[in-house]
Amino acid sequence: MRNLLDTRTLDRESALRILDVAEDMSDTQTRENRKLPTLRGKTVVNLFFEDSTRTRISFEAAAKRLSADVINFAAKGSSVSKGESLKDTAQTLQAMGADAVVIRHHASGAPRTLATSGWITAGVINAGDGTHEHPTQALLDAFTIRKRRFGADSRGQDLSGIRVVIVGDVLHSRVARSNVWLLTTLGAEVTLVSPPTLVPQNVSQWPVRVVYDLDEALADGPDAVMMLRIQLERMNAAYFPSEREYSRRWGLDAVRAATLADDSIVMHPGPMNRGLEISAEAADSPRSTVLEQVTNGVSVRMAVLYLLLAGERDDERGEGS
Ligand code: CP
């Protein structure tokens, strides 16, 4: 794997390979000494132009558990405020010895530009770009669904026949986009539920069913319900009903969660707007996998770093791999 830029071009075989390696990594994390020597001598740069808690810290934890050195860069407080470009910033960090660059950027396409411009030779991992994609989030979500369904027998399994409902602000969600591509590549059936104003215009080209009524979607008995964060910071007021109406019609509360089958799970990528898209009762219930997703994120990111820096390097594969 040379880069990980998206899940739209990640084929089934490559996706399963990442999930299976993540299973191996997960097993090592239960040991007393969970550090592996695999990436000793390698340097991973976390290049974050947008805020993050889970993604940045779990990439740091993943790299350190594989014995890589980590350099953390946050645009806030850096020379970006003096006008330094993405190219000059990336080349500066490469000059300090970066072997892999994990980038989060407000501009959709920034990771692809970094990977294909020839500015740097390091491998590039997309940690979320604008409203485009967040591939490692989708991989950890798929890993979580698979683990809940198959337990210790997860390796090699895809998600055929599993039904996932993704609810909320699809328009602005890179998590939704990456999950739509990855989950359907792995055989899952995906239904999007959203206010009409928060559905992307080109959704008819996506391999999904779209409904506007959350109760109708929940009545179909999904295996997983993935609540999306309302991205108030990207929102145009014209798109958004009042918070009260949104919560009443598209929020997951304890009453709605109680209609789900016993083995159905509730997911959220975080950070959550408690009381808006998800109630505290639903977020903290035994069917919630919110913290499991965070734990699994470390294993999945270990797998991605391993395959990028120590695994087979096949530059002929698709953009995702
Ligand atoms: N899910 C997610 O990307 O969270 P952070 O913004 O905290 O990284």
Layout of helices and strands, plus pairs?
Elements: H1 12-28, E1 43-48, H2 54-65, E2 69-74, H3 86-95, E3 100-105, H4 110-116, E4 123-129, H5 135-150, E5 163-167, H6 174-185, E6 189-193, E7 209-211, H7 214-219, E8 224-227, H8 243-250, H9 254-257, E9 265-267, H10 280-283, H11 290-309
Helix pairs in contact: 1-5, 1-11, 2-11, 5-6, 5-11
Catalytic activity: carbamoyl phosphate + L-aspartate = N-carbamoyl-L-aspartate + phosphate + H(+)
Pathway: Pyrimidine metabolism; UMP biosynthesis via de novo pathway; (S)-dihydroorotate from bicarbonate: step 2/3
Protein name: Aspartate carbamoyltransferase
In DSSP terms, counting alpha (H) and pi (I) runs of 4 or more, how many helices? 11
**CATH class categorisation of the largest domain:** Alpha Beta
Helix content: 25-40%
How far apart the termini lie comes to 5 Å
Strand content: 5-15%
Strand order in space, largest sheet: 7-6-5-8-9
Question: What is the CATH architecture term of the largest domain?
Answer: 3-Layer(aba) Sandwich
Shape: globular
Unreliable segments (pLDDT under 50, ≥5 consecutive)?
314-319
User: How is the CATH topology of the largest domain named?
Assistant: Rossmann fold
The run of helices and strands is: HEHEHEHEHEHEEHEHHEHH
Q: Structural class of the helix and strand makeup?
A: alpha/beta
